Every structure is written in structure tokens, then in C-alpha cells.
Amino acid sequence: MKPSWLNIEEYPFESKYIKLDAGIMHYIDEGEGSAIVMLHGTPSWSFLFRNLIKELSKAYRCIAMDMLGFGLSEKPENFSYKPRAHAANFEQFMEHLHLKDIVLLVQDFGAPVGFAYAIKHPENVKNIVMLNSWTWSLSKHQTFSKESKYLVGPLGKFLHDRLNMSARTLVNELFGEEEKLPEAVRQHYVKALGNPDDKVSKLACARELVGISKWYDELWAQRKQIQETPTLILWGERDKLIKIEALQKWKRFFHECYVIHFENSGHFLLEDKAGEIAAYVGNFIKEEQKKRLLEFNQ
């Protein structure tokens, strides 16, 4: 049953659920055709992709899950919330839906979770679409206090400074760069976290979600498994969480990489540029399909 605060005109999708070993996961599955699997970051959920799905589901099968602890998924107390655990859930999710030959679309923390799967199953991921993300530890380049030594990466540093902040304030700060975001839309992110007045330290988005450096280092060490995967990068340059240096690192990494810059957008560029992004993603997929067909016929 959908919560009373959810605007079904804004999010007009059929809710589906899968029972994983760790808890009940919510997801949406709209449209038909080649599958685009979308992975959100923090503190968002599949709601972030709603306008993208409205456009792309006209020609593709669009699948977006809510990680455990986020959105309309269960928030189990006994779940570890470590990134490795989220990645295991995603692998189980993919197996349940028998998804093959997908386009993997990731944003923020969705990148390490999604790339963990792509590295392990590169044959199942034909293309990657990335929005403002990172997938490496910064522990060797930063000094952390005893309390924050496991909070690595830009997300970890950001959250560590805000552990005593309310969920409501956290969302307002993260989405602060999206000046035109309607308050009714903003509230969909606030209320999806649970109690808006809870401290960040109690939320799933801060409970070990940023993980430990070992897992990031392991992931980065295996990155060559996806280095040849054709990738489209869409980057909001006003991102105050993930700096432009991360984009430069991705550009150096992927051998076949196309980059679209959004000078006036930030970390959540899907909130104001969904139409443009849908067009870029659709064109990218079509061009990649043409290339594969040409290679097959040669």
C-alpha cells in the first residue's frame, strides 16, 4: 500500500516488491524493450528517476529499485547497511528478475553498488550511464578522526559533519542547490526517510552506508572489468558533494566515454534536466545498438 504522502500523479507507477534475504525491497518496472536498470544514491530513492522513466519507458523497459532503508523499501533494524550488503541485495534482485544485457544507470552511491555487479557480471552490462558518482576510497589522501575513520569518500565526509542534523535539514541542505525544486517534491525525499525529525545518525543513509575503505579499494582494484564498457557521463558542474576532479578521473578511466556537462545543475540534475537527460540517454542507446548491429554484420 502506497503511503498517503505519495503523489501518484508525480509518481504514477505500479509498486512492486521482492522479498530478499535481508528484507522486502520496493521497485518499479515500467515499459517494454531493452532494460535500463537505475540505481539511486543518498538520501534519494526511485522517485529521483520518475521524470526520466516517464520519457524512457515509451521505448525501453525502465527498472528502478529502492535500496533497503530507502524510499518505499523496508528499513530493517538488523540489516548491516554496509555497501557490500547493498551490492549483494542488488545481485539478488538482478537474479530474481532474470535481467541480462542491460543498460546500467547510476547516480551517487548507486555507482559502487551497481559497478560491484558489473565487475562481477560484465557480460550482463552492455552500457553504462553515470550521473555525478564516485567509486573509490579517499582514505589514503585524507586524515580521519577515530569516529570517522570508516567514513570515506565525499559522501562520508559530508555525512560525518551532519550526524546531529535532522533528516529534514539534511535533505534541504543536499537539495539546496536545486533552487527551483517545489516544496511538495522536496517533501517526497524528506518523508521517504521515515521520521523527518530523526537525527542523521539514525538514518539508513548514514548507518555504515559509506562503508569502509577496504571494500572501495577492492572494487577499484577490479575496475578494469568494466573499462571497455561504452559509457555516457552526465555531470552537474555545480555539485558541492562530488567535485569536478571525480569527473576527470572517470574520463581517464573509461576507454569509450561520452561526457555531457550541465553547467547550471548540481548533484541532483535529474530534478531539473530530466527531459534533456532522457534524450541524451535514448540517443546513446540507439547509437550503441547501431554499432553492435554493424559489428555483427561485418
From TrEMBL:
GO terms for molecular function: hydrolase activity. Gene3D superfamilies: alpha/beta hydrolase (3.40.50.1820). This is Alpha/beta fold hydrolase. InterPro entries: AB_hydrolase_1 (IPR000073), AB_hydrolase_fold (IPR029058), Epox_hydrolase-like (IPR000639), Haloalkane_dehalogenase (IPR051340). It comes from the Bacteria. Keywords: Hydrolase. Residues 35-273 form the AB hydrolase-1 domain. Pfam families: Abhydrolase_1. PANTHER family: AB HYDROLASE-1 DOMAIN-CONTAINING PROTEIN (PTHR42977:SF3), HYDROLASE-RELATED (PTHR42977).
